[in-house]
Amino acid sequence: MSSQKDLLSDHAYDGIQEYDNPLPGWWKWLFVLTCIFSVVYWVYFHSGVDGRGIHAEYDRHVAQVMLERFGDIGVLEATEEQLLAAMYDPEFDKYLKVGESTFKTNCVQCHGVAGEGGVGPNMTDDHYKTIKELTDIVRVIENGAANGAMPPWKTRFSHPNVTILTAAYVAKMRGTNVAGGKSPEGTVIPPWPKYVPQPKDN
Ligand code: HEC
Description:
2 domains; two-stranded antiparallel ribbon; Cytochrome Bc1 Complex, Chain D, domain 2
């Protein structure tokens, strides 16, 4: 028992003495390793580097799923008929979500969450600065306007369909006349053409 006596720590609380019972070496090393791991983890995921972390990962997954789905609709063309179909054909509803999320990611800081305007013009009224017809929206999104005050997006989107679907989403904001929006800029243009559903092949 004497060896146990040696292990007694030299203090007592309320008359209770305790053994000096160190944690096993493997336990302490495990602790040290988790500390080191936490630093590495923090630096990798939380140091503000773009494209890391669960949000970026989620975005990549959504983009990936949408890209795969794009196979079903092929490459959309920047024609009036195509834009009208994207706006009004119920089959495009789920794809318009791509336009919506693109707008919410890239455009709201200048055009407002509902398109009510800010740095950029209000897109919920009937006035437009450089848009005369539907297809102009695609052109402005691709090439920008006013010497880059409206930035060009041509090379920034992962797929040409993204531009078309964003244009359709923007075009649909017309006439929503969001309360408290920016005062009209430019001139009133004719209404968007009427959508005439094309007979389906199948
Ligand atoms: C940095 C600010 C900024 C961002 C970001 C931005 N825009 Fe613009 N946008 C503008 C400005 C400023 C104009 C007006 C240009 C002009 O004077 O002709 C404009 C004009 C437009 C127009 C034409 C409106 C009109 O009245 O003729 C469309 C359509 C448009 N933007 C769509 C978008 C879309 C879609 C996005 C996101 C992919 C976007 N913008 C992102 C600033 C921005």
